[in-house]
Protein backbone atom coordinates (compact mmCIF):
# COMPACT_ATOMS: atom_id res chain seq x y z
CA UNK A 1 0.00 0.00 0.00
CA UNK A 2 2.90 2.32 0.81
CA UNK A 3 4.49 1.55 -2.56
CA UNK A 4 1.27 2.40 -4.41
CA UNK A 5 0.94 5.72 -2.57
CA UNK A 6 4.56 6.56 -3.36
CA UNK A 7 4.04 5.77 -7.04
CA UNK A 8 0.95 7.98 -7.27
CA UNK A 9 2.61 10.80 -5.35
CA UNK A 10 5.72 10.81 -7.57
CA UNK A 11 3.67 10.79 -10.77
CA UNK A 12 1.38 13.57 -9.58
CA UNK A 13 4.30 15.78 -8.55
CA UNK A 14 6.12 15.06 -11.82
CA UNK A 15 3.06 16.12 -13.83
CA UNK A 16 2.52 19.24 -11.71
CA UNK A 17 6.06 20.38 -12.44
CA UNK A 18 4.99 21.08 -16.03
CA UNK A 19 3.17 24.17 -14.75
CA UNK A 20 4.94 27.49 -15.37
CA UNK A 21 5.14 28.63 -11.70
CA UNK A 22 7.09 25.45 -10.83
CA UNK A 23 9.51 25.56 -13.76
CA UNK A 24 12.51 25.95 -11.42
CA UNK A 25 11.75 22.49 -9.97
CA UNK A 26 11.58 20.71 -13.32
CA UNK A 27 15.01 19.06 -12.78
CA UNK A 28 13.18 16.94 -10.16
CA UNK A 29 11.11 15.25 -12.88
CA UNK A 30 13.74 12.61 -13.68
CA UNK A 31 14.34 11.53 -10.06
CA UNK A 32 10.58 11.41 -9.44
CA UNK A 33 10.00 9.09 -12.41
CA UNK A 34 12.95 6.90 -11.38
CA UNK A 35 11.55 6.65 -7.86
CA UNK A 36 8.09 5.78 -9.25
CA UNK A 37 9.64 3.03 -11.40
CA UNK A 38 11.65 1.63 -8.47
CA UNK A 39 8.51 1.66 -6.25
CA UNK A 40 6.58 -0.15 -9.00
CA UNK A 41 9.26 -2.85 -9.21
CA UNK A 42 9.26 -3.22 -5.44
CA UNK A 43 5.45 -3.46 -5.38
CA UNK A 44 5.45 -6.18 -8.04
CA UNK A 45 8.17 -8.15 -6.24
CA UNK A 46 6.19 -8.08 -2.97
CA UNK A 47 2.79 -8.74 -4.59
CA UNK A 48 3.88 -11.80 -6.57
CA UNK A 49 6.21 -13.11 -3.85
CA UNK A 50 9.24 -13.06 -6.11
CA UNK A 51 12.53 -14.79 -5.49
CA UNK A 52 14.38 -13.37 -2.43
CA UNK A 53 17.23 -12.24 -4.65
CA UNK A 54 14.85 -10.23 -6.80
CA UNK A 55 13.16 -8.79 -3.73
CA UNK A 56 16.57 -7.82 -2.36
CA UNK A 57 17.44 -6.10 -5.64
CA UNK A 58 14.09 -4.26 -5.63
CA UNK A 59 14.74 -3.06 -2.07
CA UNK A 60 18.19 -1.75 -3.02
CA UNK A 61 16.84 -0.04 -6.13
CA UNK A 62 14.06 1.70 -4.16
CA UNK A 63 16.46 2.92 -1.46
CA UNK A 64 18.90 4.27 -4.06
CA UNK A 65 16.07 5.95 -5.98
CA UNK A 66 14.81 7.65 -2.83
CA UNK A 67 18.35 8.75 -1.97
CA UNK A 68 18.79 10.14 -5.46
CA UNK A 69 15.47 12.02 -5.16
CA UNK A 70 16.39 13.55 -1.80
CA UNK A 71 19.92 14.47 -2.95
CA UNK A 72 18.62 16.17 -6.10
CA UNK A 73 16.13 18.17 -4.02
CA UNK A 74 18.84 19.28 -1.60
CA UNK A 75 21.14 20.33 -4.45
CA UNK A 76 18.39 22.40 -6.08
CA UNK A 77 17.66 24.00 -2.71
CA UNK A 78 21.33 24.89 -2.10
CA UNK A 79 22.26 26.10 -5.59
CA UNK A 80 19.05 27.66 -6.91
CA UNK A 81 17.52 29.01 -3.72
CA UNK A 82 20.35 29.75 -1.28
CA UNK A 83 23.25 30.68 -3.61
CA UNK A 84 21.47 32.25 -6.58
CA UNK A 85 18.31 33.81 -5.16
CA UNK A 86 19.48 34.64 -1.64
CA UNK A 87 23.21 35.31 -2.02
CA UNK A 88 23.28 36.38 -5.66
CA UNK A 89 26.10 33.95 -6.53
CA UNK A 90 25.77 32.03 -9.79
CA UNK A 91 28.10 29.01 -9.69
CA UNK A 92 29.30 27.64 -13.05
CA UNK A 93 27.39 24.73 -14.54
CA UNK A 94 30.45 22.47 -14.49
CA UNK A 95 30.93 23.07 -10.77
CA UNK A 96 27.31 22.15 -10.06
CA UNK A 97 27.64 18.93 -12.02
CA UNK A 98 30.87 17.90 -10.29
CA UNK A 99 29.45 18.62 -6.83
CA UNK A 100 26.30 16.68 -7.70
CA UNK A 101 28.35 13.70 -8.89
CA UNK A 102 30.38 13.62 -5.68
CA UNK A 103 27.21 13.85 -3.56
CA UNK A 104 25.58 10.99 -5.49
CA UNK A 105 28.64 8.74 -5.18
CA UNK A 106 29.10 9.38 -1.46
CA UNK A 107 25.39 8.95 -0.72
CA UNK A 108 25.23 5.76 -2.79
CA UNK A 109 28.26 4.37 -0.93
CA UNK A 110 26.69 4.96 2.49
CA UNK A 111 23.26 3.68 1.44
CA UNK A 112 24.76 0.45 0.15
CA UNK A 113 26.77 0.06 3.36
CA UNK A 114 23.60 0.59 5.41
CA UNK A 115 21.92 -2.17 3.44
CA UNK A 116 24.74 -4.56 4.30
CA UNK A 117 26.33 -4.52 0.86
CA UNK A 118 30.12 -4.40 1.19
CA UNK A 119 31.77 -2.71 -1.81
CA UNK A 120 35.20 -2.10 -0.26
CA UNK A 121 36.40 -5.54 -1.25
CA UNK A 122 35.22 -5.08 -4.80
CA UNK A 123 37.18 -1.81 -5.08
CA UNK A 124 40.32 -3.35 -3.53
CA UNK A 125 40.33 -6.39 -5.83
CA UNK A 126 39.92 -4.27 -8.94
CA UNK A 127 43.16 -2.26 -8.52
CA UNK A 128 44.56 -3.46 -11.84
CA UNK A 129 41.35 -2.53 -13.65
CA UNK A 130 41.44 0.86 -11.94
CA UNK A 131 45.00 1.53 -13.19
CA UNK A 132 44.08 0.53 -16.74
CA UNK A 133 40.96 2.70 -16.72
CA UNK A 134 42.89 5.60 -15.18
CA UNK A 135 45.52 5.49 -17.93
CA UNK A 136 42.83 5.29 -20.59
CA UNK A 137 41.04 8.28 -19.10
CA UNK A 138 44.19 10.32 -18.44
CA UNK A 139 43.41 12.91 -21.12
CA UNK A 140 39.75 13.05 -20.11
CA UNK A 141 40.67 13.58 -16.47
CA UNK A 142 43.10 16.32 -17.51
CA UNK A 143 40.32 18.08 -19.37
CA UNK A 144 38.01 17.66 -16.38
CA UNK A 145 40.51 19.12 -13.91
CA UNK A 146 41.34 21.99 -16.27
CA UNK A 147 37.63 22.66 -16.68
CA UNK A 148 37.18 22.74 -12.89
CA UNK A 149 40.04 25.24 -12.55
CA UNK A 150 38.60 27.49 -15.26
CA UNK A 151 35.12 27.28 -13.75
CA UNK A 152 36.48 28.12 -10.30
CA UNK A 153 38.18 31.29 -11.59
CA UNK A 154 34.96 32.36 -13.37
CA UNK A 155 36.88 34.46 -15.91
CA UNK A 156 35.70 32.73 -19.07
CA UNK A 157 31.92 32.93 -18.97
CA UNK A 158 29.41 32.30 -21.71
CA UNK A 159 29.15 35.34 -23.99
CA UNK A 160 32.78 36.42 -23.45
CA UNK A 161 34.93 37.15 -26.50
CA UNK A 162 38.41 35.64 -26.30
CA UNK A 163 41.49 35.20 -28.45
CA UNK A 164 43.15 31.80 -28.03
CA UNK A 165 46.40 31.33 -29.95
CA UNK A 166 45.24 33.73 -32.65
CA UNK A 167 41.70 32.34 -32.86
CA UNK A 168 39.05 34.91 -31.92
CA UNK A 169 35.53 33.88 -30.96
CA UNK A 170 32.72 34.07 -28.42
CA UNK A 171 32.25 31.37 -25.79
CA UNK A 172 28.92 29.61 -26.44
CA UNK A 173 29.14 26.64 -24.10
CA UNK A 174 31.36 25.15 -21.40
CA UNK A 175 31.44 21.50 -20.42
CA UNK A 176 33.31 18.73 -18.66
CA UNK A 177 35.71 18.14 -21.52
CA UNK A 178 35.76 21.20 -23.76
CA UNK A 179 34.66 24.72 -24.66
CA UNK A 180 32.55 25.51 -27.70
CA UNK A 181 33.58 28.82 -29.28
CA UNK A 182 31.94 30.48 -32.26
CA UNK A 183 34.46 32.32 -34.44
CA UNK A 184 33.98 35.59 -36.29
CA UNK A 185 33.42 33.55 -39.48
CA UNK A 186 30.51 31.72 -37.77
CA UNK A 187 32.43 28.47 -37.26
CA UNK A 188 31.94 26.47 -34.06
CA UNK A 189 35.25 25.42 -32.55
CA UNK A 190 35.47 22.68 -29.92
CA UNK A 191 38.60 23.29 -27.84
CA UNK A 192 39.58 20.88 -25.03
CA UNK A 193 39.76 22.37 -21.54
CA UNK A 194 43.37 21.23 -21.12
CA UNK A 195 44.39 23.13 -24.27
CA UNK A 196 42.65 26.27 -23.05
CA UNK A 197 44.29 25.94 -19.64
CA UNK A 198 47.77 25.80 -21.20
CA UNK A 199 47.23 28.46 -23.89
CA UNK A 200 47.83 32.18 -23.78
CA UNK A 201 44.37 33.74 -23.76
CA UNK A 202 43.42 37.35 -24.42
CA UNK A 203 40.06 38.21 -22.85
CA UNK A 204 38.34 40.70 -25.14
CA UNK A 205 35.25 40.92 -22.92
CA UNK A 206 31.71 41.49 -24.05
CA UNK A 207 31.79 45.25 -24.65
CA UNK A 208 31.60 46.41 -21.04
CA UNK A 209 35.04 48.05 -21.18
CA UNK A 210 36.77 49.79 -24.11
CA UNK A 211 39.92 48.30 -25.57
CA UNK A 212 42.52 49.69 -27.95
CA UNK A 213 43.10 48.33 -31.45
CA UNK A 214 46.62 49.03 -32.71
CA UNK A 215 47.11 49.86 -36.38
CA UNK A 216 50.44 50.82 -37.94
CA UNK A 217 50.81 53.19 -40.89
CA UNK A 218 53.99 54.25 -42.71
CA UNK A 219 54.28 57.75 -44.20
CA UNK A 220 57.09 59.44 -46.13
CA UNK A 221 59.96 61.12 -44.29
CA UNK A 222 59.20 64.33 -46.18
CA UNK A 223 56.00 64.93 -44.18
CA UNK A 224 56.37 66.38 -40.64
CA UNK A 225 55.09 63.97 -37.96
CA UNK A 226 52.76 66.53 -36.39
CA UNK A 227 50.96 66.98 -39.72
CA UNK A 228 50.61 63.22 -40.18
CA UNK A 229 49.29 62.80 -36.64
CA UNK A 230 46.66 65.46 -37.18
CA UNK A 231 45.49 63.82 -40.42
CA UNK A 232 45.31 60.30 -38.96
CA UNK A 233 43.52 61.54 -35.82
CA UNK A 234 40.94 63.23 -38.04
CA UNK A 235 40.38 59.95 -39.89
CA UNK A 236 39.96 58.04 -36.61
CA UNK A 237 37.39 60.49 -35.27
CA UNK A 238 35.23 59.95 -38.35
CA UNK A 239 34.83 56.18 -37.82
CA UNK A 240 31.61 55.30 -35.91
CA UNK A 241 33.07 52.30 -34.06
CA UNK A 242 35.95 54.39 -32.63
CA UNK A 243 35.13 55.88 -29.25
CA UNK A 244 35.68 59.56 -28.57
CA UNK A 245 36.74 58.75 -25.00
CA UNK A 246 39.41 57.57 -24.56
CA UNK A 247 40.48 59.67 -27.53
CA UNK A 248 42.49 58.07 -30.36
CA UNK A 249 46.26 58.33 -29.90
CA UNK A 250 48.72 58.57 -32.78
CA UNK A 251 52.33 57.77 -31.82
CA UNK A 252 55.56 57.93 -33.80
CA UNK A 253 57.08 54.50 -33.08
CA UNK A 254 59.80 53.82 -35.66
CA UNK A 255 62.08 55.32 -38.27
CA UNK A 256 61.93 52.46 -40.74
CA UNK A 257 63.90 52.01 -43.96
CA UNK A 258 61.22 53.42 -46.22
CA UNK A 259 58.92 55.43 -43.95
CA UNK A 260 58.22 56.93 -40.56
CA UNK A 261 55.94 54.40 -38.82
CA UNK A 262 52.99 55.63 -36.76
CA UNK A 263 50.98 53.47 -34.36
CA UNK A 264 47.31 54.44 -34.22
CA UNK A 265 45.63 53.32 -31.00
CA UNK A 266 41.88 53.38 -31.59
CA UNK A 267 39.60 52.67 -28.63
CA UNK A 268 36.45 50.66 -29.29
CA UNK A 269 33.85 48.68 -27.34
CA UNK A 270 33.98 45.92 -29.98
CA UNK A 271 37.63 44.76 -29.92
CA UNK A 272 36.70 41.39 -31.42
CA UNK A 273 35.84 43.25 -34.65
CA UNK A 274 39.37 44.62 -35.00
CA UNK A 275 39.71 43.29 -38.55
CA UNK A 276 36.70 45.34 -39.69
CA UNK A 277 37.96 48.39 -37.81
CA UNK A 278 41.44 48.02 -39.32
CA UNK A 279 39.97 47.70 -42.80
CA UNK A 280 37.81 50.81 -42.42
CA UNK A 281 40.60 52.91 -40.91
CA UNK A 282 43.23 51.97 -43.50
CA UNK A 283 40.79 52.50 -46.37
CA UNK A 284 39.92 55.98 -45.16
CA UNK A 285 43.51 56.83 -44.22
CA UNK A 286 44.69 55.97 -47.75
CA UNK A 287 42.31 58.49 -49.28
CA UNK A 288 42.90 61.16 -46.60
CA UNK A 289 46.70 60.98 -46.90
CA UNK A 290 46.44 61.11 -50.69
CA UNK A 291 44.26 64.23 -50.52
CA UNK A 292 46.76 65.87 -48.17
CA UNK A 293 49.67 65.05 -50.51
CA UNK A 294 51.30 62.71 -47.97
CA UNK A 295 53.04 59.79 -49.66
CA UNK A 296 52.71 56.22 -48.37
CA UNK A 297 56.05 54.74 -49.52
CA UNK A 298 56.73 51.10 -50.18
CA UNK A 299 60.06 49.21 -50.35
CA UNK A 300 61.09 48.14 -53.84
CA UNK A 301 64.12 47.11 -55.85
CA UNK A 302 63.17 49.10 -58.95
CA UNK A 303 64.47 52.66 -59.04
CA UNK A 304 61.67 54.99 -57.98
CA UNK A 305 62.13 58.62 -58.95
CA UNK A 306 60.19 60.72 -56.51
CA UNK A 307 58.50 63.91 -57.71
CA UNK A 308 60.41 67.11 -57.10
CA UNK A 309 59.47 68.74 -53.84
CA UNK A 310 60.30 72.36 -53.21
CA UNK A 311 62.42 72.71 -50.03
CA UNK A 312 60.88 74.67 -47.18
CA UNK A 313 64.24 76.15 -46.14
CA UNK A 314 65.12 78.64 -48.88
CA UNK A 315 67.12 81.85 -48.94
CA UNK A 316 64.07 83.70 -50.23
CA UNK A 317 61.95 82.68 -47.23
CA UNK A 318 64.71 83.65 -44.79
CA UNK A 319 65.24 87.00 -46.51
CA UNK A 320 61.49 87.74 -46.47
CA UNK A 321 61.33 86.91 -42.77
CA UNK A 322 64.22 89.26 -41.99
CA UNK A 323 62.51 92.05 -43.95
CA UNK A 324 59.29 91.55 -41.92
CA UNK A 325 61.12 91.80 -38.59
CA UNK A 326 61.12 95.14 -36.76
CA UNK A 327 64.69 94.52 -35.64
CA UNK A 328 66.10 94.15 -39.18
CA UNK A 329 63.49 96.08 -41.16
CA UNK A 330 65.77 99.07 -41.91
CA UNK A 331 68.92 97.04 -42.64
CA UNK A 332 70.07 97.36 -46.30
CA UNK A 333 69.02 94.54 -48.64
CA UNK A 334 72.55 93.43 -49.49
CA UNK A 335 73.38 93.07 -45.79
CA UNK A 336 70.19 91.08 -45.16
CA UNK A 337 70.92 88.86 -48.18
CA UNK A 338 74.33 87.99 -46.73
CA UNK A 339 72.72 87.30 -43.37
CA UNK A 340 70.03 85.09 -44.96
CA UNK A 341 72.69 83.06 -46.78
CA UNK A 342 74.34 82.16 -43.45
CA UNK A 343 71.17 81.28 -41.51
CA UNK A 344 68.74 78.38 -41.62
CA UNK A 345 65.07 77.59 -40.94
CA UNK A 346 64.29 75.12 -38.17
CA UNK A 347 60.93 73.45 -37.50
CA UNK A 348 59.74 72.55 -33.98
CA UNK A 349 56.85 70.22 -33.13
CA UNK A 350 53.92 71.45 -30.98
CA UNK A 351 55.07 71.79 -27.36
CA UNK A 352 58.75 71.25 -28.20
CA UNK A 353 61.29 73.50 -26.50
CA UNK A 354 63.25 75.85 -28.78
CA UNK A 355 65.53 77.27 -26.07
CA UNK A 356 65.70 76.35 -22.40
CA UNK A 357 66.37 78.55 -19.39
CA UNK A 358 69.87 78.10 -17.97
CA UNK A 359 71.51 76.80 -21.16
CA UNK A 360 74.27 78.60 -23.07
CA UNK A 361 73.25 80.97 -25.87
CA UNK A 362 74.55 79.98 -29.30
CA UNK A 363 72.01 81.77 -31.53
CA UNK A 364 69.04 84.10 -31.70
CA UNK A 365 65.75 83.20 -33.38
CA UNK A 366 63.18 84.88 -35.62
CA UNK A 367 59.65 83.38 -35.68
CA UNK A 368 58.65 82.57 -39.25
CA UNK A 369 55.32 80.75 -38.69
CA UNK A 370 53.27 79.46 -35.78
CA UNK A 371 53.17 80.76 -32.23
CA UNK A 372 55.92 80.43 -29.59
CA UNK A 373 55.33 80.70 -25.84
CA UNK A 374 57.82 82.33 -23.46
CA UNK A 375 57.90 80.77 -19.98
CA UNK A 376 59.76 82.08 -16.94
CA UNK A 377 59.60 80.43 -13.52
CA UNK A 378 56.89 78.02 -14.73
CA UNK A 379 54.63 80.87 -15.85
CA UNK A 380 53.77 81.91 -19.41
CA UNK A 381 54.74 85.57 -19.79
CA UNK A 382 54.52 86.23 -23.55
CA UNK A 383 53.52 84.80 -26.93
CA UNK A 384 55.60 85.39 -30.07
CA UNK A 385 54.30 85.38 -33.64
CA UNK A 386 55.61 85.98 -37.16
CA UNK A 387 58.41 88.56 -37.21
CA UNK A 388 59.18 88.43 -33.48
CA UNK A 389 62.81 87.93 -32.37
CA UNK A 390 63.86 86.23 -29.13
CA UNK A 391 67.09 85.24 -27.43
CA UNK A 392 69.08 88.14 -28.91
CA UNK A 393 70.26 89.70 -25.64
CA UNK A 394 71.63 86.48 -24.17
CA UNK A 395 73.23 85.61 -27.52
CA UNK A 396 74.92 88.99 -27.96
CA UNK A 397 76.15 89.27 -24.37
CA UNK A 398 77.13 85.59 -24.10
CA UNK A 399 75.05 85.04 -20.96
CA UNK A 400 72.81 82.03 -20.26
CA UNK A 401 69.15 81.93 -21.20
CA UNK A 402 66.82 83.46 -18.63
CA UNK A 403 63.59 82.06 -20.08
CA UNK A 404 62.31 78.97 -21.86
CA UNK A 405 60.67 79.34 -25.28
CA UNK A 406 58.62 76.47 -26.70
CA UNK A 407 56.29 75.91 -29.63
CA UNK A 408 52.62 76.46 -28.81
CA UNK A 409 49.67 74.32 -29.93
CA UNK A 410 50.95 74.27 -33.52
CA UNK A 411 54.33 73.66 -35.10
CA UNK A 412 56.74 76.62 -35.21
CA UNK A 413 59.18 77.53 -37.96
CA UNK A 414 62.01 79.80 -36.83
CA UNK A 415 65.05 81.33 -38.56
CA UNK A 416 68.20 80.54 -36.57
CA UNK A 417 70.68 83.42 -36.62
CA UNK A 418 73.98 82.20 -35.23
CA UNK A 419 77.43 83.78 -34.95
CA UNK A 420 78.24 83.25 -38.63
CA UNK A 421 75.09 85.01 -39.89
CA UNK A 422 75.51 87.98 -37.50
CA UNK A 423 79.20 88.33 -38.37
CA UNK A 424 78.38 88.40 -42.11
CA UNK A 425 76.01 91.30 -41.45
CA UNK A 426 78.44 93.33 -39.34
CA UNK A 427 81.42 92.67 -41.59
CA UNK A 428 79.51 94.17 -44.54
CA UNK A 429 78.03 97.10 -42.55
CA UNK A 430 79.88 97.79 -39.27
CA UNK A 431 77.88 100.98 -38.80
CA UNK A 432 74.73 98.93 -38.29
CA UNK A 433 75.99 97.78 -34.87
CA UNK A 434 74.90 101.02 -33.18
CA UNK A 435 71.42 100.91 -34.72
CA UNK A 436 70.92 97.25 -33.72
CA UNK A 437 72.20 97.99 -30.22
CA UNK A 438 69.67 100.80 -29.78
CA UNK A 439 66.77 98.63 -30.98
CA UNK A 440 67.81 95.70 -28.78
CA UNK A 441 68.20 98.03 -25.80
CA UNK A 442 64.79 99.56 -26.44
CA UNK A 443 63.23 96.07 -26.55
CA UNK A 444 64.92 95.03 -23.31
CA UNK A 445 64.14 98.27 -21.47
CA UNK A 446 60.53 98.22 -22.68
CA UNK A 447 60.12 94.75 -21.25
CA UNK A 448 61.48 96.05 -17.96
CA UNK A 449 59.25 99.16 -18.04
CA UNK A 450 62.11 101.68 -18.51
CA UNK A 451 60.77 103.18 -21.77
CA UNK A 452 57.67 105.18 -22.42
CA UNK A 453 54.80 104.19 -24.73
CA UNK A 454 56.53 105.77 -27.76
CA UNK A 455 59.56 103.58 -27.28
CA UNK A 456 61.88 106.40 -26.22
CA UNK A 457 64.57 105.41 -23.74
CA UNK A 458 63.90 106.84 -20.28
CA UNK A 459 66.99 105.53 -18.52
CA UNK A 460 69.34 103.57 -20.83
CA UNK A 461 71.79 102.96 -17.97
CA UNK A 462 74.56 102.07 -20.34
CA UNK A 463 72.60 99.27 -22.06
CA UNK A 464 73.23 100.66 -25.54
CA UNK A 465 76.98 101.06 -25.05
CA UNK A 466 77.20 97.59 -23.53
CA UNK A 467 75.39 95.99 -26.47
CA UNK A 468 77.53 97.95 -28.97
CA UNK A 469 80.64 96.66 -27.28
CA UNK A 470 79.40 93.07 -27.48
CA UNK A 471 78.29 93.44 -31.09
CA UNK A 472 81.74 94.63 -32.14
CA UNK A 473 83.12 91.31 -30.94
CA UNK A 474 81.61 89.71 -34.02
CA UNK A 475 83.35 92.07 -36.47
CA UNK A 476 86.49 90.77 -38.13
CA UNK A 477 86.44 87.31 -36.56
Number of helical regions: 16
Class inferred from helices and paired strands: alpha+beta
Q: Strand-residue fraction?
A: 15-25%
Intertermini distance: 128 Å
Percent helix, as a range, is 40-55%
Q: Give the spatial strand order of the biggest sheet.
A: 4-3-2-1-5
Which whole number gives the mean pLDDT?
A: 77
Oligomer: single chain
Short description:
This protein has 477 residues and is an alpha+beta fold. The protein is built from 16 helices and 16 strands. Helix 11 crosses helix 12 (333-341) and helix 15 crosses helix 16 (463-471).
What can you see in these coordinates?
The chain is built from 16 helices and 16 strands. The chain has 477 residues and is of the alpha+beta class. The longest helix has 35 residues, at 52-86.
Keywords, separated by commas or semicolons:
16 strands; five-stranded antiparallel beta sheet; alpha+beta; 477 residues
Task: Produce the secondary structure layout.
Layout lengths: L1 H15 L12 H19 L4 H35 L6 H22 L5 H6 L1 H10 L1 H16 L7 E4 L2 E8 L3 E6 L4 E5 H6 L2 E5 L5 E9 L5 H13 L11 E7 L4 E9 L5 H18 L23 H10 L8 H9 L2 E5 L4 E3 L7 E7 L2 E5 L2 E6 L4 E2 L1 H6 L6 E4 L4 E7 H10 L3 H16 L15 H9 L6
Antiparallel strand pairs: 1-2, 1-5, 2-3, 3-4, 6-8, 7-8, 9-16, 10-15, 11-14, 11-16, 12-13, 12-15
Helix pairs in contact: 1-2, 2-3, 3-4, 4-7, 6-7, 9-10, 11-12, 12-14, 15-16
Amino acid sequence: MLDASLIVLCLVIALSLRAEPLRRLRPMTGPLLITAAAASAHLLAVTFDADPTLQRAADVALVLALGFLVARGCLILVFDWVLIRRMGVAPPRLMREVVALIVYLVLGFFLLRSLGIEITGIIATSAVITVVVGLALQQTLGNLLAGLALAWEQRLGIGTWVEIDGRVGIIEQTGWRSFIIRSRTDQRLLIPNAEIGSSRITILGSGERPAAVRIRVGVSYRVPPDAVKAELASVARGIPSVLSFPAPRILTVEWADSAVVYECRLWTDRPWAQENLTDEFLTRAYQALARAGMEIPFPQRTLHRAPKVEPSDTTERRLAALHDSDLFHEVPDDALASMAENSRILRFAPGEEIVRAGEESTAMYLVLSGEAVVTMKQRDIARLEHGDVFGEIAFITGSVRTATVRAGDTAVEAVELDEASLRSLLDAHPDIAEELAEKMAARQLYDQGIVDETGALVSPAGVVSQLKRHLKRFVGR
